[in-house]
C-alpha cells in the first residue's frame, strides 16, 4: 500500500502575490470529521425532540475546547519534545512553540476531555441533557475519528510494526519514525487504516445495540468508550512512533484502558439509576416549544436511515416521550 506523495500534505494558495496560505491536508481531514460529527449528531438529536440546529450551539463550545485539550494533552504527554534547554516554548512565531498545532501534535484523548467540558458548557447553556447529547454524538464521533485518521496517511505517520502482509504500508526510510536497523523497502502495518475500519464497524455496533437495548442516559456513549478504547489499546501497542512510557507501557495505552473502564462504569451506574428513555432531551423547564418538540415513537422509528437507528422510544401507542408513564425525570 503506497503512501501519498509529500506534495499532498500541504496546499499552498497564493494571496495577492505577496504571501501564501498553507492549508494542511491533515487539517482538512479533521475539519471533514467535525462537519460529519455535527451533521450526524444534529440529525439524531433533532429526531429525539431537540430544536433543529441546537447542536451547532453546543459545538461552538465543544470544538474549540476539544482542539485545546488535544494540544495540551499531547504537550503534557510528550514533554521532551517541547521543554528542553534552548527550546522555544512560548513564541508562536517561531517553530516548536506549544501553540503551533499546525506543526503536528494533537491527541484524541485530550480532544475527548476538552470536548466533554465544552459539550457540558454548551448543554448547560442550551438546556440539553448532557447524556442525551453524548448518546446522539457517539456514532458521529467514530465517523469523525475515521475521517481524521486519513490525515495520518497523508502525513506518513503513526504506522505500525513491520509486516509482510500484502497491504503493508510503504514508508520512506528517511522518515523520522523509521526504526533503526531495518532495510529500505520494509513494509509496515497501516494502523491508520485498521483504526478507520474499527471505528466504522463501531458505528454499526452502536446503532445495532441501540435498536436492541434502547441505550439512553449515556449508555450509547459508554459503548463508544469501550469500543474505541479497546481497539486503540491494541493498535497503540503495535505502533513504532516514539511515545512516553509509564511502567513500560505507552501512555496512550493507559489512556485507552481508562476509557474502557470509564465506559463500563457509566454502563453500570446508569443502568441502575435509569431504566428506559429520558422523558425529554431537555432538562426540566428548558423544553423547546416548537411544533416538533414532542415526537411520537412511531415518527422516530425509521428503517430507511441507518444513522437514525436506535433512537426510537419505548412508549405505549398513543403516548409521547414526554407523557409516557414510568419515566425518570432525573438528569
TrEMBL record:
Pathway(s) the chain acts in: Protein modification; lipoprotein biosynthesis (diacylglyceryl transfer)
Localization in the cell: Cell membrane
InterPro entries to which the protein is assigned, alphabetical: Lgt
Entry EC no(s): 2.5.1.145
Listed Acidic residues bias regions: 293-315
Membrane-spanning residues: 23-42, 54-76, 96-121, 128-148, 192-209, 221-240, 252-269
Function statement: Catalyzes the transfer of the diacylglyceryl group from phosphatidylglycerol to the sulfhydryl group of the N-terminal cysteine of a prolipoprotein, the first step in the formation of mature lipoproteins.
Xref: NCBIfam families: lgt
HAMAP family: Lgt
Entry protein name: Phosphatidylglycerol--prolipoprotein diacylglyceryl transferase
Taxonomy of the source species: Bacteria, Bacillati, Actinomycetota, Actinomycetes, Micrococcales
Amino acid at each position: 500500500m503506497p503512501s501519498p506523495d509529500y506534495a499532498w500534505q500541504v496546499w499552498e494558495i497564493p494571496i495577492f502575490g505577496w504571501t501564501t496560505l498553507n492549508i494542511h491536508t491533515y487539517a482538512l481531514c479533521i475539519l471533514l470529521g467535525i462537519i460529519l460529527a455535527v451533521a450526524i449528531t444534529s440529525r439524531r438529536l433533532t429526531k429525539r425532540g431537540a430544536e433543529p440546529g441546537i447542536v451547532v450551539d453546543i459545538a461552538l463550545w465543544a470544538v474549540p475546547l476539544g482542539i485545546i485539550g488535544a494540544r495540551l494533552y499531547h504537550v503534557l504527554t510528550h514533554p521532551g519534545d517541547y521543554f528542553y534547554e534552548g527550546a522555544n516554548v512560548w513564541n508562536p512565531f517561531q517553530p516548536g512553540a506549544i501553540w503551533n498545532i499546525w506543526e503536528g501534535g494533537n491527541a484524541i484523548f485530550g480532544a475527548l476531555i476538552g470536548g466533554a467540558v465544552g459539550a457540558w458548557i454548551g448543554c448547560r447553556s442550551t438546556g440539553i441533557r448532557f447524556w442525551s447529547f453524548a448518546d446522539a454524538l457517539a456514532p458521529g464521533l467514530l465517523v469523525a475519528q475515521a475521517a481524521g485518521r486519513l490525515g495520518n496517511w497523508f502525513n506518513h505517520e503513526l504506522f505500525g510494526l513491520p509486516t509482510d502482509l500484502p497491504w503493508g504500508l510503504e514508508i520512506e526510510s528517511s522518515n523520522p519514525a523509521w526504526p533503526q536497523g531495518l532495510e529500505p523497502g520494509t513494509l509496515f502495518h497501516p494502523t491508520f487504516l485498521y483504526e478507520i475500519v474499527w471505528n466504522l464497524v463501531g458505528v454499526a455496533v452502536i446503532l445495532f445495540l441501540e435498536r436492541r437495548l434502547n441505550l439512553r442516559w449515556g449508555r450509547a456513549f459508554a459503548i463508544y468508550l469501550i469500543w474505541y478504547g479497546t481497539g486503540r489499546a491494541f493498535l497503540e501497542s503495535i505502533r513504532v512512533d516514539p511515545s512516553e512510557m509509564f511502567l513500560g507501557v505507552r501512555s496512550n495505552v493507559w489512556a485507552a484502558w481508562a476509557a474502557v473502564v470509564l465506559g463500563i462504569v457509566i454502563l453500570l451506574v446508569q443502568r441502575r439509576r435509569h431504566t428506559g428513555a429520558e422523558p425529554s432531551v431537555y432538562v426540566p423547564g428548558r423544553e423547546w416549544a416548537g411544533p416538533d418538540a414532542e415526537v411520537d415513537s412511531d415518527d422516530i422509528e425509521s428503517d430507511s436511515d441507518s444513522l437514525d437507528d436506535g433512537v426510537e422510544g419505548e412508549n405505549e401507542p398513543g403516548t409521547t416521550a414526554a407523557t409516557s408513564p414510568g419515566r425518570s425525570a432525573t438528569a
